[in-house]
Amino acid sequence: MSHLNHNQAARPAPGAEMPPHAIGKDVALALLVGLLAGLLGLAPWLVTGAQLPPQNLWGAEVLPQQMPLSLLPLSQYELTTLVALMTAGGAAAGLAVRLWSPARRRLVVWCTAGGVLAVQATATVQAFSVLAGGLAGGTASGVYFAGLLAGVIAAIAASIVALLLGSAKSRALAALAIGLVAVPIGSWVGEWAGNLAGAGNVSPAVLTLLRWLPAILVGVALAWCGLRPARRAFVWLVNLAALWVVPALFISVNYVLGTRLPERDPQEMALMIRQILAATLGPDGGAGPTVLLALTIGLAGSAAQEFVRRRRRR
After folding, report:
1. What sign does the CA torsion over 198, 184, 35, 157 have?
2. Strand partners of residue 135
3. DSSP state of 202
4. Among candidates 299, 103, 311, 106, which has minimal Cα distance to 220?
5. Rounded to the nearest 5 degrees, what angle is found at the Cα of 44, between the Cα atoms of 128 and 248?
6. What angle, 0 to 180 degrees and rounded to 10, lies between the N-to-C axes of helices 171-197 and 204-225?
7. H helical segments located in 11-78
8. What is the pTM (predicted TM-score) of this model?
9. Cβ within 8 Å of residue 32, ≥6 positions away
10. Of 175, 177, 154, whose CA–CA distance to 165 is shortest?
11. Could you confirm whether the keyword Transit peptide appears in this record (predicted)?
């Protein structure tokens, strides 16, 4: 027995015996995956030509087509779009790592995150440098710049959280990641649809699909996650709550920041957000059918899995 324990203690950890060139290959591939995922997230904006949106506080009178190149659509009207662009990149990277399932998982995950961060940080520095160079001076411009920067940093943090959860071995954590990014992914797909079809030219069928896409994603994730063990019910609760709250939050932010009053009193803005949230989260807010669809898909999928499992036992 002692001899057996000695052999087990001496056995190297999985992946520890990999030669240096194999580790280097994994690192390089992980960085490449991160870079490509980061670019994929930004792609709906980059394909438009990536001109900075018109600014209310711009220092000079210019036509929209004369605005400079910007790798991010920096504008108070595009804050939810920025969240979608960033989180889509992180979610894509997490999915790629999960499908890859490398031996040195932790190293690969952080190298992939480094690739995503490299793209998003580069885009952020370039875009804010352009914005800072063109804004008129004054307190309002400073508040506007700082608010946008805080929003982009928060979106980058959300992107990394999506990557870490999505790349986890745990099915529950991966399903949780899908639920948290479902609404931003819906917005990201909507950006593609709008850019490809042109503003106002998206067909009713596509608009209907975009409306229900987050619910479908959440429902499929819940069906895949299942309800066993019982603690996975927490994932169901969080995902359904996110499907209810996040769209309302997006609507509130878009409405308040679209008032064209960047100098608005913060207390008044907070009051407006609370009022709109209360309206959109209420019975007439429209979130009920999407949550019900996600729950129905999840329960039906879980029941089907349980049926198949019992048939295999016979």
Report:
1. positive
2. 58
3. -
4. 299
5. 80
6. 170
7. 20-46
8. 0.85
9. 115
10. 177
11. no
